[in-house]
Design brief:
The protein is built from 14 helices and 27 strands. By secondary structure, the protein is an alpha/beta fold. α2 crosses α11, α7 crosses α8 and α11 packs across α12. The structure holds adenosine-5'-triphosphate and magnesium ion. The site of adenosine-5'-triphosphate (ATP) has 14 residues, from α2 and β8.
Length: 545
Amino acid sequence: MSSAVSDFIRNRIRDDIENDVVDDSIVTRFPPEPNGYLHIGHAKSICLNFGVAEEFGGKTYLRFDDTNPLKESEEFVESIQEDVRWLGFDWEDRLTFASDYFDQLYGFAEQLIQEGRAFVCDLSADEIRATRGTLTETGTNSPYRDRSVAENLDLFRRMRAGEFPNGSRVLRAKIDMASPNLNMRDPVLYRILHAEHHRTGDSWCIYPMYDYTHCICDALEGITHSLCTLEFEDHRPLYDWVLDNISINFHPPQIEFSRLGLEFNVMSKRILTSLIKDGHVEGWDDPRLPTLSGLRRRGVPPEAIRDFCSRVGVTKQANLVETSLLDFCVRSTLEDTSPRAMAVIDPLPVEVINFDDDDVMLEAPNHPKVPELGHRQLSFGRNLFIERSDFRETASKKQRKLTLNGLARLRYGFIVECVEVKKDAHGEPVELKVRYVPESRSGQDTSGLKPRSTLHWVSSANAVSAKFRLFENLFNVREPGGDDLGEELNPSSKIEQDGLVERVVVEDEWDRCQFERNGYFVKDSDSTSTAPVFNRIVSLSSGIR
Ligand code: ATP
Ligand code: MG
């Protein structure tokens, strides 16, 4: 019953168990609305709800909050299940939908009416808003507030029977139009919506509101700790009011924690939806998005996301987390598990002018510190490629590059000396001529030479063409989400380069790997390109993403 992790929620649960407020079985739920794909903010809630249940030997429901048929769909229901599973959590047989409880929810609404605690209101949505008051002014009672129980019951049943058009009437709780809490000013419980629901079809034309639905579902499922984000703090009195005023013998406590925010990213499903609709990104799984499907396509392992969520922790403080923390978690997950190879993203041809034989085969470990990852053969021959940015005509103190008349070691290969640069009409290098030092073979070096730089490279015989997609933050601003999203977008968030990669990576279908000095990469899942496409998951140095 003990747990290594400590935060205010886990402490509360420990106390509740100790004081017999709950029996030993903790029950939590993750309650997404199926109106979009999950993002890393949801991951925080998933890790918390499923994590707490795992740690305390409890259970977790995956419950879809499907009360708004206009925005919800089966596609979202499926993607959410896939993402929760991918993160490594299992709801077993506890997959539920708010719509499973529509009959019971309706029954409780009739009960509220019968006890004079709810009424049918004919004001329009605008009129309800206008009479709701403000933080400084009380609201005014609806002229329909004092309808008799019989009239309310009749009207509510006719609402259900489909006699009235959308928006013509609602069911409201009768609480207090002068409450300092706006959520308690006779909130709407049911609205008319003649819309096909993805699960209940056209059985219903009235739908319960979130605040009414959520607490009842929690109670029906015996949720012992209803964990939600801080924006629901002001809704808690309504959560409690509903449960206190219907005949239900279970009352979960609602406990709020702060939402996760990630710098240079948006989490709002509304904004994510519009980014996709307006074509700023290619879909919910665009590798630049903080969606779980985007992160998966980007190559981020689920373990890294779980590690990230546990490092972020659970508090009530607003948190806008730096992207470098996520990058750190990704690198540390991949560091000792990913094999390494070489890829040249922006190739500059190199001719080894004193190499006349057939290619020699060199052996290279797939990881310098993890022998279990094996080794591979590299061929070294007359025609090679290095990274364009690894050559500079004249030496500079700071940069470790190959220079004209300078030396560099080719990783796992030989030391070379650049003896000539061929340039195009603009003075840009188009080919290097180098001499290799035969006695400098890696592992058997007797040359006594100590070049400052070691470069990655591929040989013409051993390389295949590939595309590399390099990603930067999607937004240029730390907290995007202003009026003009287009203005906040980073125009170079995705760069595609044609380069070369060691053949073995493609032929042996390596999954995630490190391309030495260039970062961690993953083969993109569905590409229309004939050449293989590699997404950069993360670069090797911190600060650059
Ligand atoms: P959005 O406002 O983007 O539409 P939402 O909160 O309405 O998101 P839901 O599908 O209702 O999305 O969320 C399901 C659960 O995930 C809720 O319990 C919610 O509190 C939690 N959640 C959503 N976003 C975050 C976040 N950024 N950090 C932590 N938890 C979150
Ligand atoms: Mg929500």
